[in-house]
């Protein structure tokens, strides 16, 4: 992956909303590796392609195609990208998307997208797409348009049943479950501990079963709580926090003297304890 430039990595990611806007199913599917995972939203049942697919009866991109047919094809989706961050083989997008589900039903969804890239056949492909967004606020928006909402949501339910079956529809809705408000409290405590240089408090937020360092910088190196605090003597300001499944993501600015670096933090949490098992900090212009 080292021989690909930042511009080449961004080009792959930027091709996705282009294909979505043009409703070009073939072009969108072609962006993904043969084996790929889509978690949209994170916390719902993932769509895994490249293994034997019982509904299609073959190994291929059947699950990815059904995802497109269920959530992309019937809607008009506009991406309002605030920032792209390239760290290694991962591209993070900090954005809002506007989904026009019908003439009157339009929803705005704050989101963090994580694209993991790989090389296949001499080309860059997407091997994993993880979309961090919150289902419940989106559903509340979509249900606020009276009879138009009833018609639109009914059609959506029928479409999910047809494309994904009852189990698949339940798998999507399982994304409602997760760490929720407690995750936002956890993120607030995490950044408070960093800003106060309190490594002991930071360590208390880590799951006790976690072995080894779990705070990962933009260079991909995992660090202990104390090491991470020492490496970040500046101050973090946070302006968007999302909890999706048992993951939390946050947009931040890191201020250290005259430097101000924007970034996104993604933390994975244990379902049983609600504490951190890994926290990755992606920082703009890190390469």
Automatic annotation (TrEMBL):
Gene3D superfamilies per the record?
3.10.450.50
Protein name in UniProt: SnoaL-like protein
What phylogenetic lineage does the species belong to? Bacteria, Pseudomonadati, Pseudomonadota, Gammaproteobacteria, Cellvibrionales
């Amino acid at each position: 992956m080292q021989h690909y430039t930042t511009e080449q990595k961004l080009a792959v990611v930027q091709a996705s909303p282009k294909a979505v806007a043009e409703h070009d199913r073939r072009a969108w599917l072609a962006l993904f590796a043969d084996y790929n995972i889509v978690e949209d939203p994170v916390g719902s049942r993932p769509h895994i392609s490249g293994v034997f697919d019982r509904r299609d009866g073959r190994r291929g991109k059947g699950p990815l195609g059904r995802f497109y047919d269920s959530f992309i094809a019937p809607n008009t989706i506009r991406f309002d990208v605030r920032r792209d961050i390239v760290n290694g083989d991962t591209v993070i997008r900090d954005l809002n998307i506007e989904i026009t589900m019908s003439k009157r039903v339009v929803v705005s969804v704050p989101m963090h997208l994580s694209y993991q890239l790989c090389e296949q056949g001499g080309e860059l492909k997407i091997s994993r797409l993880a979309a961090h967004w919150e289902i419940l606020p989106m559903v509340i928006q979509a249900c606020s348009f009276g009879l138009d909402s009833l018609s639109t949501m009914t059609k959506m339910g029928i479409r999910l049943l047809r494309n994904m079956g009852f189990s698949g529809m339940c798998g999507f809705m399982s994304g409602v479950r997760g760490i929720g408000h407690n995750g936002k409290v956890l993120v607030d405590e995490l950044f408070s501990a960093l800003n106060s240089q309190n490594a002991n408090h930071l360590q208390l937020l880590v799951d006790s079963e976690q072995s080894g360092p779990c705070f990962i910088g933009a260079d991909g190196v995992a660090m202990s709580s104390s090491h991470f605090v020492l490496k970040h003597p500046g101050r973090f300001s946070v302006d968007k926090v999302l909890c999706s499944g048992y993951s939390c993501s946050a947009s931040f600015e890191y201020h250290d003297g005259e430097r101000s670096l924007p970034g996104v933090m993604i933390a994975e949490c244990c379902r049983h304890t609600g504490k951190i098992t890994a926290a990755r900090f992606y920082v703009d212009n890190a390469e």
